[in-house]
Amino acid sequence: MAVTKERKAELMAQYGKAEGDSGSAEVQVALLTERIRGLTEHMKSHPKDFHTRRGLLMLVGKRRRLLSYIKRNDIEAYRALIKSLGIRDNIQ
């Protein structure tokens, strides 16, 4: 369910602007997307786990805010990011 250390390093290398970059919005969106996918799989087999559902909705909200920030500042980077992560464009 949690993102492993190796997977986190892969995502930071792929989406980071420099080596060891873990704070940029792109890296944060990639890490949140990975966590959201894990929790979504958990929710498929445990539909009544409302504590996890709340946490999942909070992560989705945080990712949405970060994506709107990226879209506001650099639309081309936003388009490339959502395409590479495979998420839909529904940020106004």
From TrEMBL:
PROSITE patterns: RIBOSOMAL_S15. It comes from the Bacteria. It holds the Pfam family Ribosomal_S15. Keywords: Ribonucleoprotein, Ribosomal protein, RNA-binding, rRNA-binding. Signal peptide: none annotated. GO terms for cellular component: cytosolic small ribosomal subunit. The keyword Cell division does not apply. SUPFAM superfamilies: S15/NS1 RNA-binding domain. InterPro entries: Ribosomal_uS15, Ribosomal_uS15_bac-type, uS15_NS1_RNA-bd_sf. One of its GO terms (biological process) is translation. One of its GO terms (molecular function) is rRNA binding. Part of the 30S ribosomal subunit. Forms a bridge to the 50S subunit in the 70S ribosome, contacting the 23S rRNA. One of the primary rRNA binding proteins, it binds directly to 16S rRNA where it helps nucleate assembly of the platform of the 30S subunit by binding and bridging several RNA helices of the 16S rRNA. Belongs to the universal ribosomal protein uS15 family. This is Small ribosomal subunit protein uS15. The gene is rpsO.
